[in-house]
Amino acid sequence: MLDAYDCYFGVVDLHALTVLPSAADLRRNTLSCVAQYIACGLDPDRCQLFVQSHVTGHTELAWLLCCMTPLGDLQRMTQFKEKTSRKSSATSDVDSDQTAAHSTGAGHAINSGLLMYPVLMAADILLYNAQAVPVGEDQKQHLELCRDLAQRFNNRYSETFQIPEPFIPAAGARIKSLQEPSKKMSKSDENHNATIFILDEPQVIKKKIMSAVTDSGSEIQIREDKPGISNLLQIHAATTGRSIEELEARFRGLGYGALKGELVDVVVAALDPVRTRYNELMQDKSYLQSVLQVGAHQAQKRANRVLSKVYRKMGLVAPNRS
Q: Which fold has domain 8-87+109-173+285-314?
């Protein structure tokens, strides 16, 4: 995308507040995320990297869009229903334990940020009038809400926002859990063996892949009845750039062990230079801060243009953002 688009990549620290992380963790993880972005190939000389909270306008536009968003649209979001279902279950478990009867406070409450999350995500996109948004399949519903809000605003106030299109990769659009391949791979999964982290050491990656859940039968194919093997093939294709058809032919007649063994090698080979570069970057916090300062400045200029137009069309007296 760096060659075809004017790219803006934000570290969404405001979204992270929905789980109320500790202040120290949030600060550390924000810089860590920036370092991982650069280590993975996002060249600061060819794109803008910034922290969401450093750019005035994300929360402003989110509020304006909230006023145009039916409550029912947010309550129907699949991720909101899944997260609140898990939280409700956790609260119920705690409530049933008489020894913890008074501990069901903020740690178990369902906060309104989880409900409003997709509107802030829409603001993140529309604030830059984005044409294309790189997302996984699990975020398509949120992007559809963003598209609806852009169209709703345009219909009411005249053409203002482009209608963004999803940019979904052919391979790796929805990586599944290594332990429960019916679910997506998640950073928040309590079972860390289910998730490959970018910074995992080679021996950890090997253990996770070799213990990944597979399926009955021995065929190495993408099929609905073989979610485990299909997931491993998707990871291989996303990592190496090879097509699924090529991989199916490559492993025809071989066992699951052959696929897992090669997958360990290709994932380790892909992530080893990333981890090395990340460690170098984390030793130079001043460089990371300078990247964020430049990125936020450029993002702010673009955001100001869009937000000033939105204020004027909605009848708000726009502030001087020069």
A: Rossmann fold (3.40.50)
